[in-house]
Design brief:
Family: Belongs to the AHA1 family.
Largest sheet: 8 strands, antiparallel
Organism: Georgenia wutianyii
CATH class of the largest domain: Alpha Beta
CATH topology of the largest domain: Alpha-D-Glucose-1,6-Bisphosphate, Chain A, domain 4
Helix content: 10-25%
Protein name: ATPase
Number of strands: 16
Distance between the termini: 42 Å
């Protein structure tokens, strides 16, 4: 990483790190927007980060943990206070316990990150504002400056690795912790249309079908928080039939939706499904984080070929819906 400067200002209570990259601004922005890429540099070497949530929108939140060499975890969060897409974001940066609650013994900071064109590429300026001198000194003594510098030193490799995040790659699953799985897919189409395709029954019936040979005779969409939805699939010509139902818990169009999901006719615990849509250069980054009641249930569901079925549906979304709108 071409590190331009590191400036500690004890009077202003700030730490500012400036770095230049030989790529367009949008490529660097997308590296911060995609949790898969962000994980590859935000944790310093030896302490990789795992993002369990990442909503790069005003009012959004990111939650993550860094795993040390001995398996110990340090948890943190960002609350997005302002986002100017492609140019800057401002977050409240803090620490949490393993339960996700803010750590009362640790300070919260204001962190701003600006993305600008620069000779030969782009410049990223990250400024952290501390609430007091004692907080600044405490975090610097913990190695915050060295950690941020070493983390950002990994950005070059992420920016060079375009193949891992290309638009022609299939849906990919990553296990998060003991009970979660994250499925990510770059969908060729604008965020607004991808959101619409998830909430218009006529469109859903055209693409959310999984493997060929199935129809969707029941498609009841939840319109408001607290509403329930119901989807049922049936083999063409009649035969096997199954479905899912659940409740809409959170909706922030066109970027985030949280629902529960339970297979119709079963009494087992529901999953929690968190859908995030983020605009990137090649379309929309679709990320679905599913939380299962336990690891065994997660493994059993993944073994059914769930991700392959999702990929078939997402490919159909591109070809049968987005390409024809």
């Amino acid at each position: 990483m071409p590190l331009t400067s590191v400036d500690k200002d004890l009077d202003a209570l700030t730490l500012t790190i400036v770095a230049d990259f030989p790529v367009p601004v949008r490529r660097v922005w997308d590296a911060y927007a995609d949790p898969r890429r962000l994980e590859r540099f935000w944790g310093p070497p030896g302490y990789p980060a795992t993002f369990t949530r990442h909503d790069l929108v005003p009012g959004g939140r990111s939650t993550y943990y860094m795993t040390g060499p001995d398996g110990e975890r340090s948890h943190g969060y960002w609350d997005f206070l302002a986002v100017d897409p492609g140019r800057s974001f401002e977050v409240r940066d803090g620490f949490t316990g393993a339960d996700g609650e803010p750590d009362p013994d640790m300070p919260t900071m204001l962190m701003t990150t600006r993305f600008e064109e620069a000779p030969g590429g782009s410049r990223v300026t990250t400024t952290t504002h501390f609430p007091g001198v004692e907080d600044l000194e405490k975090l610097l003594a913990m190695g915050m400056e060295e950690g941020m510098v070493s983390a950002l030193s990994q950005v070059d490799d992420v920016l060079a690795d375009l193949a891992s995040f290309a638009a022609d790659r299939s849906a990919e699953a990553q296990l998060l912790g003991d009970t979660q799985v994250r499925v990510a897919r770059l969908v060729r189409g604008p965020v607004e249309l991808v959101w619409q395709a998830h909430h218009d029954p006529d469109l859903l019936r055209r693409w959310m079908l999984g493997p060929d040979g199935w129809t969707m005779p029941v498609c009841e969409v939840a319109r408001s928080v607290g509403d329930t939805y119901r989807n049922e699939w049936e083999q063409e010509g009649g035969g096997e039939r199954f479905g899912f139902t659940g409740e809409l818990l959170e909706s922030v169009p066109p970027c985030r939706e949280v629902t529960t999901e339970r297979m119709i006719g079963t009494d087992g615990p529901a999953t929690l499904n968190e859908l995030t849509l983020t605009p990137v250069a090649d379309g929309t980054l679709l990320v679905l984080v599913v939380t299962y009641p336990d690891a065994a249930t997660r493994e059993a569901v993944l073994a059914t070929g769930m991700v392959d079925g999702m990929e078939t549906s997402y490919a159909r979304l591109e070809s049968e819906v987005l390409a024809r709108v």
